[in-house]
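User: For a teaching handout, I'd like to show students what a predicted protein-ligand complex looks like in C-alpha coordinate form. I'll give you the sequence and the SMILES for flavin mononucleotide. Please answer with just the structure.
Assistant: Understood, here is the input followed by the structure.
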Amino acid sequence: MNIAVVYKSRYGAAKRYAQWIAEDLKCPIYNLSEVKPGQLDNCGAVVYGGGVYAGSVSGLKDAFSLFNKDLVVFAVGMAKPTEASAAAFKDKLIPAEVKDRTALFQLRGGYDLGKMSFFHKLVMMLVRGVMKKGESSPGEREKFKNKIVDFIDRSSLKPLVDYIKKTYK
Ligand SMILES: Cc1cc2nc3c(=O)[nH]c(=O)nc-3n(C[C@H](O)[C@H](O)[C@H](O)COP(=O)(O)O)c2cc1C
Protein backbone atom coordinates (compact mmCIF):
# COMPACT_ATOMS: atom_id res chain seq x y z
CA MET A 1 0.00 0.00 0.00
CA ASN A 2 1.12 3.56 -0.73
CA ILE A 3 2.17 5.41 2.41
CA ALA A 4 3.53 8.95 2.77
CA VAL A 5 5.09 10.69 5.76
CA VAL A 6 4.17 14.32 6.44
CA TYR A 7 5.53 16.48 9.25
CA LYS A 8 5.46 19.93 10.79
CA SER A 9 8.48 20.75 12.90
CA ARG A 10 9.59 24.04 14.42
CA TYR A 11 13.00 23.01 15.80
CA GLY A 12 13.68 19.77 13.92
CA ALA A 13 12.63 16.95 16.30
CA ALA A 14 9.50 15.83 14.42
CA LYS A 15 11.42 16.22 11.14
CA ARG A 16 14.15 13.82 12.31
CA TYR A 17 11.61 11.20 13.30
CA ALA A 18 9.75 11.71 9.98
CA GLN A 19 13.00 11.17 8.05
CA TRP A 20 13.71 7.95 9.94
CA ILE A 21 10.17 6.64 9.37
CA ALA A 22 10.41 7.43 5.65
CA GLU A 23 13.77 5.65 5.52
CA ASP A 24 12.42 2.58 7.33
CA LEU A 25 9.26 2.40 5.19
CA LYS A 26 11.01 3.52 1.98
CA CYS A 27 8.27 6.03 1.30
CA PRO A 28 8.10 9.73 0.33
CA ILE A 29 8.29 12.48 2.94
CA TYR A 30 6.76 15.97 2.82
CA ASN A 31 6.75 19.08 4.94
CA LEU A 32 3.06 19.86 5.66
CA SER A 33 3.51 23.35 4.20
CA GLU A 34 4.32 21.93 0.75
CA VAL A 35 1.43 19.45 0.45
CA LYS A 36 -1.35 20.56 -1.89
CA PRO A 37 -4.98 19.44 -1.40
CA GLY A 38 -5.53 16.15 -3.23
CA GLN A 39 -1.79 15.50 -3.69
CA LEU A 40 -1.75 12.40 -1.48
CA ASP A 41 -5.17 11.06 -2.46
CA ASN A 42 -3.61 7.92 -3.93
CA CYS A 43 -2.06 6.98 -0.56
CA GLY A 44 -3.73 4.30 1.52
CA ALA A 45 -2.59 5.98 4.73
CA VAL A 46 -0.64 9.03 5.81
CA VAL A 47 1.80 9.09 8.72
CA TYR A 48 1.60 12.56 10.23
CA GLY A 49 3.84 13.97 12.95
CA GLY A 50 4.35 17.29 14.65
CA GLY A 51 5.85 18.85 17.75
CA VAL A 52 3.59 19.21 20.79
CA TYR A 53 2.94 22.84 21.71
CA ALA A 54 0.75 23.65 24.71
CA GLY A 55 -0.82 20.21 24.60
CA SER A 56 -1.65 20.20 20.87
CA VAL A 57 0.15 18.54 17.97
CA SER A 58 1.35 21.21 15.56
CA GLY A 59 -0.56 21.09 12.25
CA LEU A 60 -2.80 18.19 13.25
CA LYS A 61 -6.07 20.01 12.48
CA ASP A 62 -4.77 20.79 8.97
CA ALA A 63 -3.70 17.17 8.55
CA PHE A 64 -7.21 15.97 9.44
CA SER A 65 -8.76 18.26 6.84
CA LEU A 66 -6.15 17.58 4.13
CA PHE A 67 -6.01 13.79 4.47
CA ASN A 68 -9.42 12.17 4.50
CA LYS A 69 -8.02 8.68 5.16
CA ASP A 70 -6.25 6.52 7.71
CA LEU A 71 -3.80 8.62 9.72
CA VAL A 72 -0.98 7.36 11.89
CA VAL A 73 -0.13 10.34 14.10
CA PHE A 74 3.09 10.78 16.03
CA ALA A 75 3.19 13.48 18.69
CA VAL A 76 6.70 14.69 19.56
CA GLY A 77 6.88 16.32 22.99
CA MET A 78 9.22 16.82 25.91
CA ALA A 79 6.98 15.30 28.55
CA LYS A 80 7.46 11.63 29.32
CA PRO A 81 4.71 9.66 27.52
CA THR A 82 2.32 7.84 29.84
CA GLU A 83 -0.92 5.92 29.35
CA ALA A 84 -2.73 8.90 30.85
CA SER A 85 -1.18 11.34 28.35
CA ALA A 86 -2.02 8.98 25.46
CA ALA A 87 -5.64 8.83 26.62
CA ALA A 88 -5.76 12.63 27.02
CA PHE A 89 -4.32 13.20 23.52
CA LYS A 90 -6.80 10.77 21.98
CA ASP A 91 -9.67 12.40 23.82
CA LYS A 92 -8.70 15.99 23.10
CA LEU A 93 -6.99 15.89 19.71
CA ILE A 94 -8.76 13.20 17.69
CA PRO A 95 -12.31 14.09 16.61
CA ALA A 96 -14.91 11.36 17.27
CA GLU A 97 -15.69 10.90 13.55
CA VAL A 98 -12.09 9.94 12.66
CA LYS A 99 -11.18 7.97 15.81
CA ASP A 100 -11.63 4.57 14.17
CA ARG A 101 -9.12 5.39 11.41
CA THR A 102 -6.53 7.27 13.48
CA ALA A 103 -3.68 5.72 15.47
CA LEU A 104 -1.56 7.75 17.86
CA PHE A 105 2.03 7.29 19.00
CA GLN A 106 3.93 9.49 21.43
CA LEU A 107 7.63 10.19 20.94
CA ARG A 108 10.06 12.31 22.89
CA GLY A 109 11.68 15.38 21.43
CA GLY A 110 14.26 17.83 22.56
CA TYR A 111 15.14 21.47 22.71
CA ASP A 112 18.06 23.83 22.61
CA LEU A 113 17.26 26.99 24.57
CA GLY A 114 19.95 28.77 22.53
CA LYS A 115 18.02 28.21 19.30
CA MET A 116 14.54 29.10 20.55
CA SER A 117 12.62 32.27 19.93
CA PHE A 118 12.47 34.57 22.96
CA PHE A 119 8.86 33.64 23.71
CA HIS A 120 9.42 29.89 23.34
CA LYS A 121 12.52 30.06 25.55
CA LEU A 122 10.51 31.79 28.23
CA VAL A 123 7.74 29.17 28.08
CA MET A 124 10.25 26.30 28.20
CA MET A 125 12.00 27.78 31.20
CA LEU A 126 8.65 28.01 32.96
CA VAL A 127 7.41 24.51 32.09
CA ARG A 128 10.60 22.47 32.30
CA GLY A 129 10.16 22.17 36.08
CA VAL A 130 6.79 20.49 35.50
CA MET A 131 8.30 18.13 32.91
CA LYS A 132 11.22 17.35 35.20
CA LYS A 133 8.77 16.14 37.86
CA GLY A 134 7.40 13.51 35.46
CA GLU A 135 10.81 11.81 35.16
CA SER A 136 11.31 8.56 37.01
CA SER A 137 15.06 8.74 37.66
CA PRO A 138 17.31 11.44 39.17
CA GLY A 139 19.56 11.18 36.06
CA GLU A 140 16.68 12.07 33.75
CA ARG A 141 15.61 14.91 36.07
CA GLU A 142 19.16 16.29 35.98
CA LYS A 143 18.99 16.59 32.17
CA PHE A 144 16.45 19.39 32.48
CA LYS A 145 19.09 21.65 34.03
CA ASN A 146 20.90 21.83 30.69
CA LYS A 147 20.47 24.33 27.88
CA ILE A 148 20.24 21.45 25.41
CA VAL A 149 17.92 18.59 26.34
CA ASP A 150 17.66 15.71 23.88
CA PHE A 151 15.39 12.69 24.28
CA ILE A 152 15.21 11.94 20.55
CA ASP A 153 15.63 8.21 20.13
CA ARG A 154 15.34 6.29 16.88
CA SER A 155 14.64 3.00 18.65
CA SER A 156 11.43 4.47 20.12
CA LEU A 157 10.01 4.38 16.58
CA LYS A 158 9.89 0.59 16.47
CA PRO A 159 6.26 0.18 17.68
CA LEU A 160 5.08 2.77 15.13
CA VAL A 161 7.02 1.26 12.21
CA ASP A 162 5.94 -2.28 13.17
CA TYR A 163 2.31 -1.11 13.42
CA ILE A 164 2.43 0.39 9.92
CA LYS A 165 4.12 -2.68 8.42
CA LYS A 166 1.56 -4.97 10.04
CA THR A 167 -1.51 -2.84 9.23
CA TYR A 168 -0.65 -1.61 5.72
CA LYS A 169 1.54 -4.38 4.25
C1 LIG B 1 6.15 27.09 23.56
C2 LIG B 1 6.37 25.62 23.74
C3 LIG B 1 5.37 24.81 24.25
C4 LIG B 1 5.57 23.44 24.44
N1 LIG B 1 4.56 22.68 24.95
C5 LIG B 1 4.79 21.35 25.17
C6 LIG B 1 3.75 20.54 25.75
O1 LIG B 1 2.64 20.98 26.01
N2 LIG B 1 4.02 19.23 25.98
C7 LIG B 1 5.23 18.67 25.65
O2 LIG B 1 5.42 17.48 25.91
N3 LIG B 1 6.23 19.41 25.10
C8 LIG B 1 6.03 20.73 24.84
N4 LIG B 1 7.01 21.50 24.27
C9 LIG B 1 8.27 20.85 23.84
C10 LIG B 1 8.25 20.51 22.33
O3 LIG B 1 7.19 19.64 22.06
C11 LIG B 1 9.58 19.81 21.97
O4 LIG B 1 10.63 20.75 22.08
C12 LIG B 1 9.55 19.17 20.59
O5 LIG B 1 10.77 18.49 20.42
C13 LIG B 1 9.34 20.18 19.48
O6 LIG B 1 9.27 19.50 18.23
P1 LIG B 1 9.65 20.22 16.88
O7 LIG B 1 11.07 20.70 17.03
O8 LIG B 1 9.57 19.16 15.84
O9 LIG B 1 8.68 21.34 16.64
C14 LIG B 1 6.83 22.85 24.09
C15 LIG B 1 7.84 23.68 23.54
C16 LIG B 1 7.62 25.02 23.38
C17 LIG B 1 8.73 25.85 22.79
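For the handout, you might add this sentence: The pocket of flavin mononucleotide is lined by residues 9-14, 51-55, 76-79, 109-111, 116, 120, 123-124 (CB under 6 Å).
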